[in-house]
Amino acid sequence: MKSKKLNEEIIIKELDNGLKIFYMPKQGFTKKYAVFATNYGSNDNKFVPIGENEAIEVPEGIAHFLEHKLFEEPDGNVFNDFSKLGSYVNAYTNFNQTAYLFTCTDKFYDNLKLLVRFVQNPYFTDENVNKEKGIIEQEIRMYEDSPGWKVFFNCLRGMYHNHPVRIDIAGTVESINRITKETLYKCYNTFYHPKNMILFIVGDIDFDKALEIVEKNQREDIENYTGSIKRFYPEEPKEIKNQFMEEKMSISTPLFNIGFKDSDVGYYGDKLLKKQIVTDILHEMLFGESSEFFQKLYDEGLIDNTFGTQYVGNKDYGYSILGGESEKPKVVMEEILNYITKLKNEKLSEEDFNRIKKKFIGYHLMDFNSLEYIANTFIKYYFNNTSLINYLRILQEVDFKDIVERFNSHFTSENYTLSIVCNR
């Protein structure tokens, strides 16, 4: 995969077991980065396991639980092994994927061997699974005490009726206590199959040497399968569930999230990536720090520099979140609705669009200096059937008409939820 405009290339190798390995050369970089990821996240709770014919439904939070357990081995914890090599190791689970990563400046090949080996060799026992339940229960309770976490998931619960995106990634105390080693192995054997995973490495690396290490450390007892994993998600209405969500906690300044539920779903690939780019540009035009609206609310003391926006989009769900701190979150909501109505009558600024589009192109080019950005963004786009290499081309193709159409369909006075966390 090559991009002349970016002056970047990605080398691809597929192993016999279906694992795809991607390598982006970065000559002269001292840092090296690798991420081993599976197309499996907290939303994937109903599926047909490999080798079976019937769908099963597993406890919420099991993908996150599985991520935790993979670091444990019969003779200790993998974190210690990476520490001895002088590298940084971590992992994360989100709604749609789980990833294991390391970064280092030295001993890259030893780190790579360790990464590939531990992710492909699960060790679950009744004893260590029960022990982990207590650890994750503490983590869940910690998040329940986090105002930022609560305001966000309350917003999702307000927008969504049935979709699992409304459920905390870690699950609930009740759901994780239903997890068994047998269920963990069933999820692992299905979703951690090499055909459902990719390995992305980036840096100044001898790819042939890296490839040899990966090939030599593949499990040989993996059951093959044809086709794709069958996953099931509940039907989700286009309408939001609740327009207002409020929770009281011990905080000094109220937090708010305003979620606009995306009804334009059902596709992925380049079309999904374009929708994300268009929405991101629109966010910056409407609510960015350089917008008149931001300055107006900031000068009036309704928002501060914690205010920001985010768009998250996948094949079966999507939402925009506007949030921050404010003493008067309901007034902020009214101002936003009035602002949207006004713009639909007076029209958006094409001049703002052209300026921000150029800004996005510049930021995108700068992002290729970050190995972490390259690797983690690549896997996110890959699992959505597109590529990081396509981003610049699609961004350059976006025109003002795309922005106007998206604005009119996505920001309405019916598809929003206001979530507030305020002082008791």
TrEMBL record:
The keyword Hydrolase is annotated on this UniProt entry: yes
Gene3D superfamilies listed in its UniProt record: Metalloenzyme, LuxS/M16 peptidase-like
Residues in Peptidase M16 C-terminal domain copies: 178-359
Keyword Hydrolase among record annotations: yes
GO MF entries: metal ion binding; peptidase activity
The Peptidase M16 N-terminal domain, residue ranges: 59-172
Keywords: Hydrolase, Protease
Domain of life: Bacteria
InterPro entries, per database record: Metalloenz_LuxS/M16 (IPR011249), MPP/UQCRC_Complex (IPR050361), Pept_M16_N (IPR011765), Peptidase_M16_C (IPR007863)
One GO term (biological process): proteolysis
Record-linked PANTHER family: METALLOPROTEASE, ZINC-DEPENDENT PROTEASE
Stored NCBIfam families: YfmH_fam
Name this polypeptide is given: Zinc protease
The species this protein was found in: Thermohalobacter berrensis
Taxonomic classification: Bacteria, Bacillati, Bacillota, Tissierellia, Tissierellales
